Amino acid sequence: MAFANITNFVSWDEGGVRLLPPEEIDQIKLTAVQSVTSGQHGVTIRLHDKLRAVELLAKHLGMSREETRVELE
After folding, report:
1. Domain ranges within the chain, ordered by starting residue
2. Which pLDDT value is given to residue 57?
3. How far is CA 51 from each of CA 2, 15, 41, rounded to the nearest angstrom?
4. How far apart, in whole angstroms, are the C-alpha atoms of residue 8 and residue 24?
């Protein structure tokens, strides 16, 4: 999720925007998709919050700067 990019799911040129066929999308990258909706103005792809994913990844890897309180006896 932290490294997902909209170009993993769509392509565009002078002719417009096109969704990539599902078989062209890496299954792991699909985990970054929060929702896909079709409406009056076309298709909307919403990705999960990248910043939150990076924060959680940093915390998991011990890279966050959270204060840790240790009491020694």
Report:
1. 6-60
2. 86
3. 7, 32, 27
4. 9
- CB proximity list for 53: less than 8 A, separation 6 or greater: 1, 2, 32
Give the Cα separation of 35 and 15 in Å (integer): 25
Write down the pLDDT at residue 11.
Answer: 93
User: Smallest Cα–Cα separation from 31: which of 13, 61, 8, 55?
Assistant: 8
Model confidence over 18-71: pLDDT tens digits? 989 989 998 888 888 999 999 998 889 899 888 888 888 888 888 877 667 778
Q: For the chain, how big is the Rg over CA atoms in Å? A: 18
